[in-house]
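Dear support,

I submitted the protein below through the web form. The confirmation email said the job was done, but the results page showed an empty box. After a refresh the structure appeared. I'm attaching both so you can tell me whether what I see now is the final result or a partial one.
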Amino acid sequence: MKEMTDLAYEIERLEQEIAERSERLAEHKRHLPQTPVSDYTLTGPDGPVKLSHLFGGGKDLIVIHNMGKGCRYCTLWADGWNGILPHIENRAAFVVVTPDSPDTQAQVAHSRGWKFRMISSHGSTFTEDMGFRSEKSWLPGVSTFYKNNDGSIIRVARAGFGPFDTFCSAWHLFGLLKDGVNGWEPKYRYGA
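What the results page shows now:
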């Protein structure tokens, strides 16, 4: 067996450090003061739906804040959620929230083959109140929630999305190629 070079040892050390720090970061986020959240009324395909109903029969809810139909990056992330949906839903309820209307959401979901639930935040301050709206546009990310026995809801943690975040594996795979990402950007469709 070849001896590892100094660089290979450094890579192994950094990978271990990143894994440990990522776990520690998630733990710190979970231990921030938990914020009580109103039982927002959002819009589903069948009309108004309360945030509390999105939990199904469980206590945990993952909400993806997606910028909607016009964002290629959000589409890349959502395509990934679709692939691991059974694994996610085995642990927690999962929903993607966009500012798009339920009809637009249904069209996009059908065209992409998405199986997860989609809810519209249009007409609600939910997305802004969760911190995923800037002066100019919507922002992508995730919020996690917990429903207490008394029915009250708290936000446990949040994180933003962007290239090389820990929520989209494509960037990390491309980063391992000879020329790295090399200017690549997601598209709705590839090829001719």
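Response: this is the final, complete result; the empty box was a page-load delay. Strands lie at 35-37, 41-44, 47-50, 60-65, 93-98, 117-120, 141-147, 153-160.
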